[in-house]
Amino acid sequence: MGRKKDAVLIAEETPNPQLNSEKKKKKNKNKGKHQNDTSSPKRTLHEQNDTESTKTKKIKHHISNDIVDGETEVVNGTSDETVTERVVVVTGKNADDSKYTAFKTFAEAGLPEKVLECCKGFEKPSPIQSRAWPFLLDGRDLIGIAATGSGKTLAFGIPAIMHIMKKGKNKADRGRNPLCLMLSPTRELAQQISDVISDAGRSCVVESVCLYGGTSKGPQISSLKSGVDIVIGTPGRIQDLIEMGFLSLKEASFVVLDEADRMLDMGFEQIVRSILGQTSSVRQMVMFSATWPSAVHQLAQEFMDPDPVKVVVGSEDLAANHDVMQIVEVLDERARDKRLVALLEKYHKSQRGWKAVSIHGDKAQHARTKALSLFKEGICPLMVATDVAARGLDIPDVEVVINYSFPLTTEDYVHRIGRTGRAGKKGVAHTFFTQQNKGLAGELVNVLREAGQIVPEALMKFGTHVKKKESKLYGAHFKEIAVNAPKSKKITFNSDDED
Question: Which helix (H) or strand (E) holds 485?
Fold first, then answer.
């Protein structure tokens, strides 16, 4: 099979009919010509200016530091090679004990060959893996603060498999009840975790099932009846199957909450608490989150060991990936379509027409899954998506992100542009910023400055002041509120429900 085509991801709040219209015009104009050619279009997610560049660091000699407590760990550093710096901080009871020394190689982990089968494509453990494994393999509760794309799925996946293998002798006694539970906020992220766990557990004969809404319960119930070791899924569907009597978590003694901050932000807190309350009273808890807001902290205090280990890769405060060139364009809202077409022609200049797929909450799950698959495989190198695809998804080789509309928060902006520049690769993020987004200008300026990006003068004209308003989950952020504004009312759409 030839080289996989690069892909472009366009993020917006709602699907854009104007874009569809432009695509049709382009297609009609080139009717009779080939849809694709042999060139390699780039995967794109919201763009900025073409002239910006990121600041990088060079080192003279090979460095392989792995230092705890706030010092810098330089990863994959060689002579005159651009490197990525990460701060790795480990805290907790006896965290400095020699038995918890980070694993610099897979061999140091002392894991069975069949368990490490899934790691053969990697040179060495990622920072979160090398730090988390010693604690998790020793049965410690752990809180991991790390961005998506950091290798965190295997960071908790490998210890989960080892946990099951150690208890395997009791499998006949436990019937069809799973030993491990992994909760995820969205269907796509749950499926992504399931793919990794399924691959990792295949050589160890560890069975798993992925439970999420938007699809028939029948096959999921059949898998549960057959007996599984690991249950992966979204809170709504898992709670449904528990209430229907098809799923029992009373023997789930290894429990993972992935993207915990987003899970609570999506309103799953009560369901999550209910589910956790039905797991084994003697359990090992693992919680991964991109940030560490007070609500997540409170949940950890309630369900985890009084003194869990905490591993922070990078920062507890969300920051943009420094491998992503951020290009912010301040323009009139009516000019976005024309600029978008220009960018698409730039990144797909050899193509005769744009073959695109879309993902949004109103789309049926099977259609979302198919669209994501076509995008990942490079068959359709352009994806138009709402924030359902903004966070957590690991799509290789996305080179460009175009933010057609600026998200509601800068946190969402950081997650959106994080779809590119993954696993040490470089990426570009173009962002359209309009007058109606001016309330977030100060925060965006701070994000750009922190990442060493160029701040457009037009953006500075909106001002750099950041008015702080405490958010339950994300801490202080700016929001303009009219004095006599009516109270907000929560509206729930069935299509967005993960049940």
Answer: none
327 with 458, same domain? Answer: yes
* Inside any domain, residue 491: no
* pLDDT per position as a tens digit, 402-442: 999 999 888 889 888 888 887 778 899 999 999 999 999 99
- Alpha-carbon distances of 89 from 57, 64, 73, 120, 308, rounded to whole Å: 21, 16, 10, 27, 14
pLDDT at position 181 is 98
- CA dihedral for 365, 366, 368, 372, sign (positive or negative): positive
Number of structural domains (the chain) is 2
Q: Which parts of the chain register pLDDT below 70? A: 1-8, 12-86, 148-149, 169-176, 315-318, 349-352, 388-392, 467-499
Residue 490 forms part of a structural domain: no
Residue 243: phi and psi, rounded to 5, are -65, -30
**Conformation bin of residue 241: beta by default, left when phi > 0, alpha when psi is -120 to 50:** alpha
Judgement on whether residues 30 and 93 belong to the same structural domain of the protein: no
Measure the CA–CA gap between 300 and 295, rounded to whole angstroms: 9
Interior CA angle at 374 toward 33 and 369, to 5°? Answer: 145
Q: Specify whether the CB–CB gap between 87 and 73 falls below 8 A.
A: yes
Which residues, 6+ apart, have CB-to-CB distance to 299 below 8 Å?
A: 257, 260, 264, 269, 272, 273, 287
Strand boundaries in 365-477, DSSP class E? 382-385, 398-403, 427-433, 469-471, 475-477
Return d(Cα 283, Cα 380) in angstroms, integer: 43
With beta carbons less than 8 A apart as the criterion, state whether 187 and 234 touch: yes
Residue 304 shares a structural domain with residue 326? no
The CATH number of the domain holding residue 44 is: 3.40.50.300
Nearest of 412, 455, 422, 403 to residue 321 by alpha carbon: 422
- Asked if the structure places residue 498 within a domain, the reply is no
468 token code pair: 């702080």
pLDDT over 70 percentage in the chain: 72
Let me know the angle formed at the C-alpha of 336 by 402 and 495, rounded to the nearest 5 degrees: 65
Count of Cβ atoms closer than 10 Å to residue 437 Cβ: 20
Q: Which residues contact 134 (CB under 8 A, 6 or more apart)?
A: 99, 100, 101, 102, 103
